[in-house]
Structure formats: structure tokens, C-alpha cells
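Let's practice the habit of predicting before peeking. Look at the sequence and jot down your guess about where helices and strands might fall. Then scroll down.
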Amino acid sequence: MVNLTANDTLKGALRKFFGFDGFKGSQEEIIQNLLEKKNTFVIMPTGGGKSLCYQLPALLSEGTAIIVSPLIALMKNQVDAIRGVSEEEGIAHVLNSSLTKTEITRVKQDIVDGVTKMLFVAPESLTKQENIDFLTSVNVSFFAIDEAHCISEWGHDFRPEYRRLREIFEKISNVPIIALTATATPKVQHDIQKNLNMLDATVFKSSFNRDNLYYEIRPKRDVQKEIIRYIRKMAGKSGIIYCLSRKKVDEIAELLQVNGILALPYHAGLDANTRVKHQDMFLMEDVDVIVATIAFGMGIDKPDVRFVIHHDIPKSIESYYQETGRAGRDGGEGECLSFYSYKDIEKLEKFLQGKPVAELEIGRQLLHEIVSYAETSVCRRKFILHYFGEVFDEKKCDKGCDNCKHPKDKIEGKEQITLLLKTILELEEQQKAKHVCAFLSGNVTSDIKSYKHNLMDSFGKGKKWDENFWNACCRQAVVSGLISKDIESYGILKITKKGQAFLAKPTSFTLIKENEYLLEADDDFVLSGKGGAFDETLYQMLLDLRKSTAKSSNVPPFVLFQEPSLKDMCFQYPITLDELTNIQGVGQGKAKRYGKPFVHMIAGYVETNEISRPNDLVVKSLVNKSGLKVQLIQNIDRKLPLEDIGQSQGKSLAEVIDEIEAIVASGTRVNINYYIDDILDADNQEEIFDYFIEAETDELMDAYKEFDGDYSEEELRLVRIKFMNEYAN
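Done guessing? Here is the structure:
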């Protein structure tokens, strides 16, 4: 090892190898600690300069540093960077499954010859006996573990193979360890140190505050239009959009391309060459936006990412912090925009079903935290830093998050929460939030009427507040642990033990008065005369028109257009059949069959009320010509079992039914009678069919209750598809 006695020698090495005049933060102390052969634990936010903390000491030490890294792309990026500061190409190597035998031989020879200072390995490669035997025979300077949160089950990217690293290190050499992560709660930090048997390590923890980042959560409404509008505002700037599924990544990337935005997808379903190509095009600024699953960005050193958008809220605050941390790494502007819907949380909860109990509990707790973050009215920066064990004065946020920029009102909610819990009990813990909120606000929905709940003495007891207010109460009571949603049975509300204790002795409860996130008018986006708010007057007119048209056609109203479609019309004001096809759930077939009276009414309403429609932002929709969709229809025409069709496309039966429902709802006829005939006899089909003919709503929950659970959700959905086929298309 090179002896460094004076700080200026270390700074001289920094200048010589990397061309920097000074260290950032605690880099110098970390490097000195490692060079003194002490175990070192570094918790430093993205952009803080973690990689230098092992790269410089590796260059200054005798032997080869073994650096454990989770992604091949990350290793490649690091190796390229190190080779750029040296005349010797063999100074850094990777050792992983992507190498040929010849390449592996060369890597080993460079290590034996003392040329290689850094060897990047995946934990899987490190567990191979032949590699352990080889590394035991050479001079190892130290071990570095990048992305060390992968060790902890409480970390956001837990990988079981990381738990074995300590025993492998002990087999190879007794040298110091440096573990590094950009995100660790106190619990994760202790877990990492304990697993690596380095509780004696010197811990260097930098502040998690990224004061150049702006945090904002928006409700998930018109999300695709919102994203396009936002990116157009940030024209020419680099950004990343994160989605939870590969399918959504492809869909959003294609949507952006159609709308003239330079964007590419990145996910594990693409072949390795395409992923590398897309990543390089983003780094070289041939494209502005990468749409990706969470695999993208780990260790990618692009300093000028100006925005990170989460199409779907991540499953933990660690993930959120890590991913948003890829914005503004150069200290310049970085906007972090996330779209939030509780339905996304319910999907993530469903993914947890069937996992081992410990994993399930951890997953639920992490989800609970991200929900609290999304719904909180306190300073978002304060919330994040508190989560990572750091105290922050929100006055220093200086409008650096939406909650500080637009503070929300708070009220004392003991009375309302008590009334909510009592109502849930009165309705025998058998109803969803939607029903409970309608009941409290005195709204006589078809659901309320069918249960005769409007005849109960307590009906409308909370009518001085509207349904939106009661929805906020429900969400906040769920977040506070007073009530739970039973995912298995359509999200029915149940009182928890904590809720029962609250009812027995009500205490103060701070309710957050939730803001509406209204779009602000600017030069490139003209809002409706209603200020972008939902047009309740038009909605009532459309409901009446739907009812009268349905009556003359002798079909239930929902057969024409479902409520989400009518609501979308009240935001977009379509006045031609072509514009109507841009409305949610409306295809060309449905527009032609039922659209004329609706666009005629909207055109008259727009003219009479002098409404400026949001036409300045023309978002082109994706044409429904997806190969998988065509393939699905062709396979149905061939009368293949739906399970087999799903298997061929890597989808569950429920996902296949989802796609068929979407196709049928937009006006395309899809005949699945052959499949239904196999699972239900004619009498059963007729019974369900008759129900939908008489029903005021196509809600599955209502049908499920009507038949007292005699038919499964799947059976009801399939017959509903058959019904819509025959009556709507």
C-alpha cells in the first residue's frame, strides 16, 4: 500500500488521477480511513461521489480491490470511467457471466501481473468455487460493496445472494471492507453492518437533503396528457420516467414518440444489446427521455437529468429516494414529479399475496410508509429526511416541495373520524369506501337504494361534508391504522384494534384538508372556461341523455358509455366523432354507433357557455394496433382456451380478461361464447344475463352480492363481456 502521511499527497493523487482540485463532503476522511485498513460504512446520497471513495484508494493500494456490484450495466459504466483516467486498459476489469473463456483468462492474467487495481464482480460470480480459489491466490487490497442496501431484507432492492458475501470474503482474504449505499434507514444500516460482521466500522453518514430537488405528488388523473404537457414544458432537457411494468414502459415510450418526443424504453424484457444501445443514446443525448422500470439508473452517471417522473408510485420510500436522486446530480435543477393513486397501492398489495409471512409484513409496512408520504400535508423533504433518521426544519425547504409551495389547511377531525368508524360498524363492516362515503354524505346512489340504506336513521348524518371529504377521511384513517381495507373482498372496510380503541376513547385527530391539484393555465395550454375543473353541469346533462337514449334503444345506460367515459367528456369537450375516440374507453365502433347525439349536445353546450376547449394541447393517442391485441383476437377466433392464450403471452387469466374487457368496451366485438359455454350452463348464463339487463350499473360487486357469491368474479366478468358484446357492439 502507498503510504500517505500528508493530506496534500492525497489531494495530489486526486488531481493526478481524476483532475479534481478538492474532495466533496467527507470523501477525504473516508478514503483515509480505508487506507488505514479500517472497516468503513458510507451512507451518501446519489450524486455525493460514493464511487471515488473506493476508486482512489484502489489506485493507491497494492493488489486488487474486489468491488461487488449488482448490475452488469453499472459495472461496464464504472470500468469505462476508470480506464479513461489511466493509460493501462487492464487497470479495471469485470468478471461476470457475459465474458468468454479467452476474456476470463486475460482478466486473471492482468490481476496476477499486478496491472488490475479494480475487479468488478456480481455476487453470483463471487460464489463460484473456481473464482474463490483464484482470488485466494492473489493479493486483494480490500472489498467494496456498492449498493449495500441489497444486503438488507428491509432495503428497497433486497437480493438474497448479497447475504452470503461475508462468508465468501472470509474464505478469500482478511482485508478491510467498505460498504456503500445511497439510501439506508437506521434499521437497514444496522442490518447491513450486522450481516457483514462489521459493527466496528467507522460510519460516514452524509445529509440526505438534496436541496436542489423539488418534490411534487399529483393525483393520477389524465396522467398521459399531464406527462406530455410537462415534458413539452421541459423541452430539450433530459429526464427519466419510471413505470412498474414492462408493458406500461413500452406503452408510454410509444406514446411519447407518437407525440414528437425523443424517447426510448428500457427494461429487462429487451435484449442486452438493445438495453445498452438505449442507455448509451440517453447518455450521449441522442434521446431526451428514457422510460424505464426500476432496473435503469443504478450507478448511471449522467449529471444533468433535469426531471424524474414516476408514472406509478414506488413500493417504498427508499426506492422513491433512490430514483428521484438521479435528478440534478450536478447541483442544477431537478424536478421529481410522481403520480399517485391508491389503486396502485392496492395492486402492489396484491403482488404481496402468497409471499412468506415475514416478507409480507415487511412489504406491507414499506407500502404503508409510501402511502403516508404521498398523502401527507407536511413538508415532503422533512418527511423523507425523518424517515432516514435526520431532523430537518421545514422552513429551510423554501418552497422546495408542493406542500410548502401550496400549504394545505388542517382541521380537528375527532368528530368526523368517530362518525366514520361508527358508520362502518353500523353497515356491518360489509361495504367499500365508496358506499360508506355516499351513505355519510346522504347521496342516494343505486347501490344505497338497493340495500335500502337510505331508510336508516343515520343515513346522511355527515351531509355537511361531501363525498370527497369523506374519501379523504377514509384514506387518512387507513394510513393511521384505524381501519383496514380487505383486499381479498373488493376492498371492504374493517375496523382495526387501534380503531376500536379510538372509538372506546376518542382522541384528537388532525385531518388534512386535501387540495385539488388544478392545472394552471400557461401560454401553451388553454384550459376550459371552468378553470380545468370537472364540469358537473355537463355531466348531469350527459347522464340524462344517456338515460333517454338507452331507454329508446331498450338497453341499460352503461351499455352506451360507462361513467369514466362521460366524466372524461366533461374535461375534454369532444365535438366531433373523431375527437370522441380520444375519450377513455371509446373506440371507433362505439363512437359511430352511439356518439352523434353526445357530441352534438357537447358542441351546443360549448358554444352557449363560450368554453375554450383544451385543444392547444393535442395529445395523439396510440392506435390500437398492438400485435398482442391482434394476436389475442385471432386466438379467440380460433376458439383457444383463454388460459392457453394468456400463457403464450406471459399473462394470467385475469389479465387476459382485462384486455378483452377493454377491447369490448371500446366498441369491438369479441365472441368468447365457446369459452363461457364450457364453464357455465345455459341456465346460469341466462340468470346473470337477465341481471345485467335490469341493472342500473355494471358494477361487479353489486352482481356478486345479488347472487350471494354463487358465481365467482371471473364468471360474472365473462358473462358481462358476452352481454356487452350483444347489446353494445
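How did you do? The domain at 7-205 is CATH 3.40.50.300 (Rossmann fold).
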